[in-house]
Prior knowledge:
Blueprint: E1 6-12, H1 19-27, E2 34-41, H2 47-57, E3 61-66, H3 71-81, E4 86-89, E5 95-96, H4 100-111, E6 115-123, E7 129-130, E8 141-144, H5 145-153, E9 164-167, H6 183-192, E10 197-209, H7 227-245, H8 250-265, H9 278-289, H10 291-296, H11 302-313, H12 315-328
Helix pairs in contact: 7-8, 8-11, 9-11, 11-12
Pfam families: Glycos_transf_2
Protein name: Glycosyltransferase
Organism: Candidatus Eisenbergiella merdipullorum
Amino acid sequence: MDQPLITVIVPVYNILDCLERCVASVCAQTWENLEIILVDDGSTDGTGELCDRLAGRDARIRVFHKPNGGSSSARNLGIDMANGAYLGFVDSDDFIEPQMYETMAREALEGGYRIVQVSRDEIGEDGKRRPDVCVPPEEPVFQSSGGFLRTLLLHEGDCSFCTKLIDAELFRHRRFPEGELNEDFYLLLQLLTEADGVRILPQQLYHVYYRMGSNTRKKDPDEFSRVFTDIVKNADYAQKLTKERFPQYEREAARFGLCQRLDYLLHIPVAQMNRENAFYREVIRYCRRSVRETATNPYLTKQQKLYLLLLTAAPRSVRRLHRLTMRLRGK
C-alpha cells in the first residue's frame, strides 16, 4: 500500500522539558511518510532553539517561528504550511505510540473514512495513569456525524484533534478560532457537517501528559479561566447546529447547554456575580427561562437538576456553598 503524506502539526510554547520526548515519539512512527511541522509560538525559554536543533536531526521536521498568538494561531499556521493528504495534531507536552498514525491511516484508506480517531489515556505528573476521560470502545465502530455529535452533547465523546487523523480537504476553508479556548469543539462541529462521520478505534495510542499548568487546569480554585465563558458560547453554537442539521438530538443539545452553564456558574468567583457582569446575567436569565427543561430533561442527572434549580433561585449563596465544599474536599 502506498503511503500518502501525513502532516503532523505540533504547536510549541515554552515547553523545554517535554518537547524532545514529544517530537521523538512522532519521529518514531512506523508510518514513515511524515511531514512534521513545529510551530514555535514566540517561546522565551529556549524552546525555539530546541526546535531548530531537532529539525537538524530529522529532515522531515520543518520549523516555523512566529510571535505569540496562542495555540489556535500556531495550529492554523501549521495548516497553512501543510502538504499532507491527511493532518494530525500533537500537543507538545504529550507523546504517542509508534504505530498510531499507521493504524489510523490504514483504517482511513481501507474504509474510505475522512476522520479516524484512536483512544487516549492520561499520565499524571507523578507518572501514574489517571482514570480514563473517554472510555474506549471494545471494538472499532463507525459513528455517523449526528451520532458522534450526540456523544459530544452527552459529554461521552472525544472532541480533541490530537487523537484524530483527518482528511486535509476538510480544512480547505476552515481554521481554528483564534483568541478562544475550547477551540477543538467548535471546529470539530464544523467538520462534522461535511464528513460522513468518525471511525473510532479502541487502541489507546495517544498519551496526554496531565500538567496542572495547562490552560484548563489551575491550582488556585478561585482563578477563573476564560474557558468557562467559551464553553457557554460553544454550547449555543452546538444547539443552533443541532436544531438545523440534527433536530432529533435537540433534547441532548438542551442538556449540553444547561450543563455548560452549570460548569460556568460553579467556577465563577462570587465577586464577579454582579449586575455589571452582562455575561453572567445572561447565563442566569437562560437558566431561569429553562426551568421546565431542567426539570424534565431525561439526560440531566438528579444532582445536575438540583444544582441548576438552586442556582436559578440563589446563585451567589449556592456558589459560596459549593466553593466551601470543594475546599473541604481539597479540590
